[in-house]
């Protein structure tokens, strides 16, 4: 009886469990939420469709959200593709050379995201007629040359560039260095010169490539840039610095931080003093003529082995007529006088781009009177940029003053700017 009751109980339990199992198998399945398909990138481009009378330097501006630009194709009316490239930051496409005047172009831009979704936009525009006014430009770095480690890259203009045109010009000045040594462009006060340097001197052996893509770029006042200029050059394999001290009337020549020669000098007399400051050798002449006709103290003289330091006419040069005073007294019209033998040795030893520091004279160097990028410290130099300075190149904040110390300090006198620079003059020198 007991076994029979257990069998009945077992059957009842099984019959009770089956519906539960069946209910579990026949119920509604759980629905999983489906993911939305990835959206294509959002893309905006410039110039606007049907834009007219654009500068021949026009770029295709690109703004992308959720992706990046993968291709820009610009074609002329014959369907011929225009050479050009995206900027490294993807903010726009720049033509390889200025576009043709009074010409129609079509641009097609494609952007893509990581999911492979694409978006394409087109625009068309027409460039302006040939401008009536051009600004003449000059790039100081020439291809296949070797320069000193203090060589700044400068672009000069034959007229003042207004402040509201400087950022657009600066965006068209492209520098590449190998090994990489990032720097900043900075403008002189009058806008006649913009200079590029890194926080420190170039590493010996560096290769520098520059493109001043200024053909057709608006320069202000209805004027446009004259042409594109390029240069690729090397920095010398050693560091050479010249230091001239008015107190001792001596020039010290350092090569890779080793003093290699001391040279007696005669600087400018009190009525025509030599400038104190940090300047760079800009030109080297085996022979040249100094002509100061029209000045209060006019003269015309031929000098040998002359090296230009300023636009205003300060040179290092041979001056056999002042050997008696070299190392003793200042008798020149502002130049640094040395003997024939020392001038010849300097010509063989120095390079354009070598730094020359002069100290202790009655006047300081005007900023912009020559290649004066090193005449101010880095924190002062970058203030001249018309574009935001990259975060990694901004000057470090000043250190807090030491307890009991002065609240603030300043750079040495040679590092302070001396006011706006004069425009380059035709004066060739003062003996």
Secondary structure: helix percent: 10-25%
Number of continuous helical runs: 4
Give me the CATH architecture of the largest domain, please.
Beta Barrel
Shape: elongated
Spans of at least 5 consecutive residues whose pLDDT stays below 50 are: 7-27, 404-428
Distance between the termini: 138 Å
Secondary structure tally: strands: 29
The oligomerization state is single chain
Radius of gyration: 34 Å
Which homologous superfamily in CATH is the superfamily of the largest domain?
Answer: L,D-transpeptidase catalytic domain-like
Q: Number of folding domains?
A: 3
Pathway: Cell wall biogenesis; peptidoglycan biosynthesis
Active site: 317 (proton donor/acceptor), 335 (nucleophile)
Protein name: Ig-like domain-containing protein
Biased composition (Low complexity): 410-431
Word description of this protein:
The chain is mainly β and 431 residues long. The chain has three domains: 42-127, Immunoglobulin-like (Sandwich), CATH 2.60.40; 134-235, Immunoglobulin-like (Sandwich); 240-372, Beta Barrel (L,D-transpeptidase catalytic domain-like). Helices cover 11% and strands 36% of the residues. The chain has four helices and 29 strands. It has helices at residues 2-26, 163-170, 340-349, 378-381, and strands at 42-46, 51-54, 60-65, 68-75, 84-86, 92-95, 104-112, 118-127, 134-135, 137-139, 146-147, 153-157, 173-178, 184-187, 193-197, 207-213, 218-220, 223-225, 228-235, 240-245, 250-255, 258-264, 275-280, 283-291, 300-308, 315-318, 336-338, 355-359, 363-364. The protein has a six-stranded mixed β-sheet with strand order 22-21-20-28-23-29, with no helix packed on it. The longest helix has 25 residues, at 2-26. The radius of gyration is 34 Å and the shape is elongated. The model is unreliable at 7-27 and 404-428 (pLDDT under 50). This is Ig-like domain-containing protein. Residues 29-54, 388-431 are annotated as: Disordered.
């Amino acid at each position: 009886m007991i076994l029979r009751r257990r069998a009945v109980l077992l059957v009842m339990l099984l019959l009770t469990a089956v519906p539960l199992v069946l209910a579990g198998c026949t119920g509604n399945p759980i629905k999983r939420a489906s993911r939305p398909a990835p959206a294509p990138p959002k893309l905006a481009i410039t110039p606007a469709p049907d834009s007219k009378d654009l500068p021949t330097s026009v770029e295709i501006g690109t703004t992308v959200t959720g992706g990046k630009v993968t291709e820009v194709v610009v074609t002329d009316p014959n369907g011929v593709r225009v050479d050009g490239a995206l900027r490294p930051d993807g903010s726009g496409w720049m033509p390889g050379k200025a576009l043709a005047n009074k010409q129609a172009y079509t641009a097609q831009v494609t952007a893509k995201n990581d999911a492979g979704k694409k978006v394409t936009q087109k625009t068309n525009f027409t460039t302006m007629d040939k401008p009536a006014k051009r600004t003449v430009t000059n790039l100081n770095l020439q291809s296949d040359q070797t320069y000193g480690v203090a060589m700044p890259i400068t672009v000069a203009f034959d007229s003042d560039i207004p402040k509201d045109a400087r950022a657009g010009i600066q965006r068209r000045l492209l520098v590449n260095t190998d090994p990489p040594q990032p720097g900043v462009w900075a403008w002189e006060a009058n806008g006649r010169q913009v200079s590029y340097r890194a926080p420190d001197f170039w590493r010996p052996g560096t290769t520098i490539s520059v493109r001043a893509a200024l053909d057709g770029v608006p320069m202000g006042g209805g004027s446009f840039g004259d042409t594109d200029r390029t240069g690729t050059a090397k920095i010398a394999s050693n560091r050479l610095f010249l230091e001239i001290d008015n107190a001792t009337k001596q020039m010290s020549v350092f090569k890779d931080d080793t003093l290699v020669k001391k040279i007696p000098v005669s600087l400018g007399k009190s009525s025509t003093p030599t400038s104190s400051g940090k300047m760079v050798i800009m030109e080297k002449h085996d022979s040249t003529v100094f002509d100061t006709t029209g000045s209060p103290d006019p003269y015309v003289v031929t000098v040998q082995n002359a090296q230009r330091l300023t636009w205003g006419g300060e040179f290092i040069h041979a001056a056999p007529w002042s050997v008696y005073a070299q190392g003793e007294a200042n008798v020149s019209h502002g130049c640094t006088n040395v003997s024939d033998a020392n001038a010849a040795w300097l010509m063989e030893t120095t390079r354009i781009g070598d730094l020359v520091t002069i100290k202790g004279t009655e006047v300081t160097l005007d900023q912009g009177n020559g290649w004066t990028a090193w005449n101010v410290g880095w924190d002062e130099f970058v203030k001249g940029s018309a574009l935001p300075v990259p975060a990694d190149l901004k000057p470090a904040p000043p250190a807090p003053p030491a307890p009991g110390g002065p609240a603030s300090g300043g750079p040495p006198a040679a590092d302070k700017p001396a006011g706006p620079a004069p425009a380059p003059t035709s004066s060739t020198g003062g003996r």
